[in-house]
């Protein structure tokens, strides 16, 4: 014989599950903020060559190579009779941020990261809500006595049956049908 929960126990458990759902959603929101802050810190990081032995050696080698190259450029400019103020020169410098030194690039990266983090948070929120409703359903089901109530609970459709996965071939067929209906024909872009 299975022991059933009392109505008061079920009510307390459902209330607790809902509170845990709320806290988990807040935690997901907080996690999104932390992830975005970490991303901002990473794309804004300045990597100086003097903080790393390998980078320092590379910098020194680069400076020396640029110096030798400029000596060759000066010698050739002298041979060609190019005045000093018009001579070409080679400049070599350490880029401490790479592409992230450009505001536009950081904005582009930030936009993508924000969208990715929002999608991750939305997925987490759906999972939190799904687990909450599963727990609430199980708790409430424990107190159902009538066959009608149990049968009703069992026939509630899962979301997957209401929103099946997309079939790319079906999407292509719908697009082709719309194109035929509009008289434009299907225009494929390579």
Secondary structure blueprint with pairings:
Layout: H1 7-43, H2 53-80, H3 103-141, H4 147-154, H5 159-162, H6 168-182
Helix pairs in contact: 1-3
Plain-language structure description:
By secondary structure, the protein is mostly helical. The chain has one domain. It is 69% helix and 0% strand. The protein has 6 helices and no strands. 0% of the residues are buried. The model has no long low-confidence stretch (mean pLDDT 88).
Question: Key terms for this structure?
Answer:
single chain; 190 residues; mainly alpha; elongated
**Integer-rounded radius of gyration:** 32 Å
Q: Name the helicity range.
A: 55-70%
Q: How many strands, what sense, and barrel or not for the largest sheet?
A: none
Unreliable stretches? none
Strand content: under 5%
Q: So how many helices?
A: 6
Q: Which structural class do the helices and strands define?
A: mainly alpha
Number of extended strands: 0
Terminus-to-terminus distance: 67 Å
Order of helices and strands: HHHHHH
Overall geometry comes to elongated
Question: How confident is the prediction overall: mean pLDDT?
Answer: 88
How many structural domains?
1
């Amino acid at each position: 014989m299975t022991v059933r929960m009392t109505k008061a126990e079920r009510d307390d458990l459902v209330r607790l599950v809902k509170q845990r759902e709320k806290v988990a959603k807040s935690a997901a929101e907080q996690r999104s903020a932390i992830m975005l802050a970490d991303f901002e810190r990473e794309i804004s990081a300045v990597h100086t060559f003097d903080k790393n032995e390998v980078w320092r050696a590379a910098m020194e080698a680069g400076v020396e190579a640029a110096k030798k190259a400029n000596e060759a450029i000066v010698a050739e400019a002298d041979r060609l009779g190019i005045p000093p103020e018009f001579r070409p020169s080679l400049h070599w410098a350490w880029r401490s941020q790479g592409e992230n030194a450009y505001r536009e690039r950081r904005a582009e990266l930030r936009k993508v990261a924000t969208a990715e983090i929002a999608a991750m948070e939305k997925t987490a929120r759906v999972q939190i809500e799904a687990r909450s409703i599963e727990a609430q359903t199980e708790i409430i089901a424990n107190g159902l006595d009538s066959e009608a109530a149990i049968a009703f609970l069992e026939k509630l459709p899962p979301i997957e049956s209401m929103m099946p996965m997309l079939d790319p071939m079906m999407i292509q067929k719908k697009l082709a049908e719309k194109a035929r209906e509009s008289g434009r024909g299907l225009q494929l872009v390579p």
